Amino acid sequence: MMTLNKDETLPVAAGLHELFFPRSIAHIGASPKPAPGRFAFLEYIQKMGYEGALYPVNPSYREMLGLVCFPDLASIPGPVDMAILALPAAMSVAILRQAPRGKVKFVVIHTSGFSEIDKGYLEDELIELGKAKGFRMIGPNCMGVFNRRAKICFWNDHAELADRPGSVGWISQSGGLALTLMSRAIDLGIGIEKAVSLGNQIDVSIAETMEYFAEDEAIRVIAAYVEDVKDGRRFLETVRRITPQKPVLVWKGGVTAVGRDAARTHTGSMAGNAEIFAAALRQAGAVRIDNHDQMLIALKVLERPDRLPGRNLLLVCPGGGMVVNVSDAFSAQPNLSLPRLSPECQARLQEMVPQENVDLKNPVDPGAVGMTKLGKIIETAGREPDIDSVLTIGNADFLQMLPNDQVRELVIQEMVHTVSSSAKAIEKPFYFYIMPVHDDPVSALYRRLLRQRLEDQGVPCLGGPYYEIARVFSRLAGMQRRADPQ
Amino acid sequence: MMTLNKDETLPVAAGLHELFFPRSIAHIGASPKPAPGRFAFLEYIQKMGYEGALYPVNPSYREMLGLVCFPDLASIPGPVDMAILALPAAMSVAILRQAPRGKVKFVVIHTSGFSEIDKGYLEDELIELGKAKGFRMIGPNCMGVFNRRAKICFWNDHAELADRPGSVGWISQSGGLALTLMSRAIDLGIGIEKAVSLGNQIDVSIAETMEYFAEDEAIRVIAAYVEDVKDGRRFLETVRRITPQKPVLVWKGGVTAVGRDAARTHTGSMAGNAEIFAAALRQAGAVRIDNHDQMLIALKVLERPDRLPGRNLLLVCPGGGMVVNVSDAFSAQPNLSLPRLSPECQARLQEMVPQENVDLKNPVDPGAVGMTKLGKIIETAGREPDIDSVLTIGNADFLQMLPNDQVRELVIQEMVHTVSSSAKAIEKPFYFYIMPVHDDPVSALYRRLLRQRLEDQGVPCLGGPYYEIARVFSRLAGMQRRADPQ
């Protein structure tokens, strides 16, 4: 397969600005009633509140979604910053052959059926067409571009992210994972600033997108799902340049032979040796991510990049068995320790807790205490000079056992007040973990309610498995922000 | 702390029969309105449908829960097979001092505040009292005993397990984890046959309970959460003797120094070197478990101990990115491989799938196909001689996107029919993984619905993180059923 040489650039002004801030978008192959499984891109973008020009292109219609429909690209009046192509591979190529030179700045080739199924020759032609006609491409085999500020997106639920402040730049080679991560971010109250699904990366690459995000002041954290970096050296150099300024999270797919085989079928990837790549990434200062759960935990923590978990963690955790398990999970990780609280501190705590079913060393199990005392305990332990961050563990399932909504509301208010006041008083990075116990609708409802109420008061809430929180804390605590940007 | 010598036994007839099948139960310290955090044991047991004699004991009441209330143990007419003591430690000891000799067979000492807070001398007295008065004990610092058939239990939601066939014997040193695991088992449709929370184990130990469960024909799988085995040699010998007949799952808490410290505070445990213990357990044929999620996955799989996942797994998984991730997760585990499907098989599959967005090697990503074809694909690949078990991955979140309940019902019916028919046709161990995507009430509802419908048709459904499924499958595939029971 032909790829661009290192010094060769496609003939468009530098940068990806028009890709993320298009003034006009055409959807070639748009339909007022998309078949099941097809994407209604223009509808999603309308729902986001996009204010630029939208052009459905389909010779069978004269109008759709309240918009004038055009028979082809040439008929559209004025330039098209982004053209979304969602048609079979060969037809997509044929349409671009007909495109007037200079008409389109970026083509998002949603369609699959290219190098990942050994039709690399079609990709070669796309590259030639791009050069000849002056457009650049993302994909093929990708979802597209999301930008909260430009109000562009590629899925139905993205409108829910439009008004949520976020500082994450999310780059996913996989379209499915791009969508899933964003949907789960919506559930967890994580803001996404910009996102792009890159697919086979015949033109715009992960490295180039990272470079763009590096310059973007709205983005403070870069997260990437990577199966294959087309130019390993450029990618690693980019990561190395960015990490002194912004954290870079890299989730690598295809780390086993079977996974690499699947990645080749998925996005035409030719991934190399996983261990060498992982070591190089670590040296470049990136944080390794292994799965969705870790990525979501890391993104939530990194919403406050100035308040990352440190190496000396205090855990406050009710329930003796759970204390043992979280002790094991967190203390087994490199870069993390649970410093034993001083005898003086333990003595002060002793006065606030019952005699039985408590643990005061760290983790602290406060036993059966009321909220006021719990707040005092968290503060007293959290203020110890040996401690540099605090994770308080609780769950929302107990709310089900309360007699009615009025009582529940009072309990939530008291809990939110206690936890958020302690968090403020301690003046250290502080997280609340809402441990998922039951997988039933009512529990999910109360988890969401408690999370929203705590986050409204500035307490970041984590979910997912506690052992994945331990891994993420460990990696963030060990993150090497290199001192010499170059 | 005094413990029993190896050859010394407490003066009660061998076996724990009356502990699991008590004909009469007294709750000393029962109250018609327990304070928050206190347990209403008799109420839970009534709710279970227990048919033996129930005796609340409390000098302040003459009646509660429709039962005659007695001022003390001595006033109860007839013998007491199980006495539940839920009073402060010193008071518990005082009450047992007053107990008539021979009156009580088993005492469940729910109360904490013994050796775990350096009051081992109270435990010494309990042991002396047991010998003198002829009772045996579980605890202190424990929850009690659950037995589906005898309809005894220790928590409010246990009644939901009463009519659910199950073959699990669950032994937990931690009371909190005993409860949590059982609650989650209820969510996931896992049946529990018997359970016991053992706490500080001053008398009845994990090993003795295992021996009892080993002889119990109703129990086919033994699962244990262990912080400390009081007699390591007896415990390991017991495990070694059982594993040729029944799988034994051991989740060990306190595997790190901090975790061991917490375990000492939790259940007075003096755990030894974790690696040596883990190696000895493996040699004895036990399956290692690291957390709740793994335990629940293993218990679900082991509901059919005759149909365990083998070493050669077929994964059917929609979505290219997810295929890469599950490939990595499963193929990185020892004892597991995903054999590449033969060219002939791939050619047959090729005729059933679209050209794009598919993968036919294993994992199989069937792309956008209808249900009928999906069934054919699963069967065709699953029947390959290289494959010995099948995991099909799906999710329930898409059900939200369907227009109404009628359509949803039709889709579920078709899906359940397809999956269960394929599972039957393949005649190999078959599991369906309902991947949790969203943590919201509606998704949780549809996960439960889909699970129930599939399980009604005999398809075991797994939940939790996919990477933990990979670990459990690996350990079950590697489980050494020793050939020579002795």
Annotation keywords:
elongated, 5-stranded parallel sheet, 2 domains, 38% helix, alpha/beta, homodimer, Rossmann fold
Word description of this protein:
2 copies of one chain form a homodimer. Chain A starts with 16 loop residues before the first helix and ends in a 9-residue tail after the last helix. The model of chain A is unreliable at 1-13 and 482-486 (pLDDT under 50). In chain A, the strands form 4 sheets. Chain A has a 6-stranded mixed β-sheet, sandwiched between helices. A 5-stranded parallel β-sheet of chain A has the order 2-1-5-6-7, covered by helices on one side. Chain A is an alpha/beta fold and 486 residues long. Chain A has helices at 17-20, 41-48, 89-98, 120-133, 175-188, 206-215, 232-242, 257-267, 274-283, 292-301, 320-331, 343-350, 371-382, 405-426, 441-456, 466-477; strands spanning 24-28, 53-57, 63-64, 67-68, 80-85, 104-109, 136-138, 144-147, 168-172, 192-197, 221-226, 248-252, 287-289, 313-316, 389-394, 430-434, 461-462. Chain A folds into 2 domains: 17-301, Succinyl-CoA synthetase domains (Rossmann fold, 3-Layer(aba) Sandwich); 313-477, Rossmann fold. In chain A, helix 7 links the parallel strand 11 (221-226) and strand 12. The radius of gyration of chain A is 25 Å and the shape is elongated.
